[in-house]
Specification:
alpha+beta, Leucine-rich Repeat Variant, four-stranded antiparallel β-sheet, 15 helices, 7 strands
């Protein structure tokens, strides 16, 4: 598995993103609870003083064993471990007959990502737009089942190769061009989290990309996981446009993406990594320095995950923080030499503190 799988280039040089997780997420991760699959890889994040062994002991859990029936019950047992403030467990389906577990904790005194209290306004979206959005989710699912998951982000928003999904996306773009103020109002004041999540996806289709960046940055602190996920995806697409057309002068600040790398919510981390991959594709010393200062420990932890598909993007970011070119990072990955890259990045952070 090489870093190139995260993004490809067409013969004309246009950047294409390959969708590896669900588009326009109302729920990022497929649920496996209530079934009885076996456990594949077990990945941890947020561990500073607590060890993975201690967590597995508390859960009486092991790779190859049966998936426990209760997600909430697992989280409650982890939270009984001294020093653990909160726990999150996600099961990602499926690798053969197995699911991969991601167990996240927040410890006392560890970095904490704060969310904004939910708004209580009356702003809503029209039913027709919600119906179009739900039809898009269905079309994306069908495209994924057919293996047609390519999307082009060079316009600053997603346009899928699948004709049915693309037609619906173009409808969303038409709505955004005429109703950006309504989308902004729902995103900032709407009381329904699903509608805010839809607004976060659709406002990214507005033609004046720079004008909606602040709205999407605001949404990155929404208390709903899906709102944040869709806001990141919209900003990521705008980031691709900014990278391919620097003359537009579009600027996306990396601050909240970096803070999300310390979130206990797995989708925050995965989506933030994807966005930061785009923002640092051509360098971006400010973003790399901020990651080094605020989230390198989290990235290093993620880069060591056993599930390689999810470890690769954070590993690439760690290599970029270490000052390595992508080709060299890729060779290290292919040679199975993750630790050398991780240690090099950690050394740059230590050197910076001494300096």
């Amino acid at each position: 598995m090489a870093p190139a799988e995260a993004a490809a280039t067409d013969p004309n040089g246009a950047r294409l993103s390959i969708v590896t997780r669900s588009l326009f997420l109302l729920a990022l991760l497929p649920a496996a609870w209530g079934q009885t699959p076996r456990i594949g890889d077990i990945n941890f994040y947020g561990l500073r003083k607590t060890t993975g062994e201690k967590i597995l002991s508390a859960l009486q859990l092991r790779a190859g064993g049966a998936l426990p029936a209760s997600k909430g019950g697992m989280e409650e047992r982890i939270e009984e471990i001294p020093g653990v403030v909160e726990a999150r467990v996600e099961a990602i389906c499926c690798e053969g007959a197995s699911v991969n577990l991601f167990i996240g904790i927040e410890e006392k005194g560890a970095p904490h990502f704060d969310y904004r209290p939910p708004p209580a306004g009356a702003a809503t979206l029209p039913a027709e737009l919600m119906d179009t959005y739900h039809s898009l989710l269905t079309a994306v699912q069908r495209a994924a089942q057919a293996g047609n998951t390519a999307e082009d982000l060079t316009a600053g928003h997603s346009l899928m190769a699948d004709p049915a999904a693309r037609a619906l996306q173009e409808n969303l773009a038409g709505f955004a061009a005429e109703h950006v103020d309504q989308l902004r109002d729902v995103l900032r004041t709407g009381s329904e989290p699903e509608e805010r999540a839809v607004a976060a996806a659709v406002i990214g289709y507005a033609p004046a990309k720079a004008a909606v960046i602040n709205d999407l940055q605001y949404a990155l602190q929404d208390g709903d996981d899906a709102v944040r996920a869709n806001a990141v995806r919209s900003l990521k697409a705008i980031g691709v446009l900014a990278s391919t057309q620097p003359g537009l002068g579009i600027r996306i600040q990396p601050t909240w993406f970096v803070e999300m790398l310390n979130s206990i919510v797995l989708s925050d981390r995965l989506q933030a990594v994807d966005a930061l991959m785009v923002l640092t594709d051509q360098g971006n010393a400010a973003a790399l320095d901020l990651m080094r200062d605020r989230a390198l420990a989290s990235l290093a932890e993620m880069a060591r995950w056993k599930t390689l598909h999810y470890a690769l993007p954070p590993f690439l970011l760690v290599g970029r923080i270490a000052g390595m070119p992508d080709a060299e990072i890729q060779r290290s990955w292919e040679n199975g030499d993750r630790e050398t890259v991780i240690k090099k990045a950690l050394a740059t952070a230590a050197k910076g503190k001494r300096g």
